[in-house]
Amino acid sequence: MPRLVCFDVASPFGCFRKGFTTTNALTYGVIPRSAVEGLTASILGLSRTDFPDLLKDSKIAVKIASPVRKLNTKYMHINPKWWNETLSHYINNIQFVLEETREQIAVPASVEVLVDPAYRIYIDINEKINDELSQALMNRQCYYTPYLGTSSLIASVKYIGEFEYDYSAIKDYVPVSSIIPFSGRIPKIKLEKGSKFAIEEDITIHVDNERRPKGTYSVVYAIEPVQIMVTDKDIIEIKEKEKIVYVKFLPTKVTS
Fold first, then answer.
1. pTM of the predicted model as reported, rounded to 2 decimal places
2. Which domain holds residue 156?
């Protein structure tokens, strides 16, 4: 029976910018598959040119482990001294005149961030790389610093274990713990009182070695970290320690 590697990742903040945003950065409510591939590559030390091909066919499922909350904020980076001490060395014949009391000169940029995002990642790449990933996680080693969407949003990573999985033969509704991807029609969901769901569209499947997005998919997920009663094909059954967990793998195929 095949096995997958399971680990948790969390950060005080996360930001997975929607591609259509420019001046105001909006974030997806969930971590995209492309970001999971990049996170895995950072743990293993895979180069930007190598990991897109190595991880493009990997089986990945994501469980949301914290309530989905978003915060709108603003940030500014530039201090007047930077202009005088740095740019003046490269630009000739320009005199920078700045008021001494002026603290900032850049226009504030709006950004939307996730607050306390946490995820459980299930991933099956191949036996060799799975072993390397498990070993790195058990030793609490990351080749590059892991982060959630932006390099300043550093993440913590915790190894959970390796678990066997198989495709479920159940045809009725089952409690699915992961984000539920779909294409076209939304999967059949049994609504329960008080449950809150959200849908995200046009999430990137992969990025190539030039950082260009490849393919998109949609997902439905619970705002709170609860299971969703779903009946759908290709539900995966994971034997996680003493319990059975149902998930759905995120898509790998890029359609034109």
1. 0.86
2. 3-73+108-247
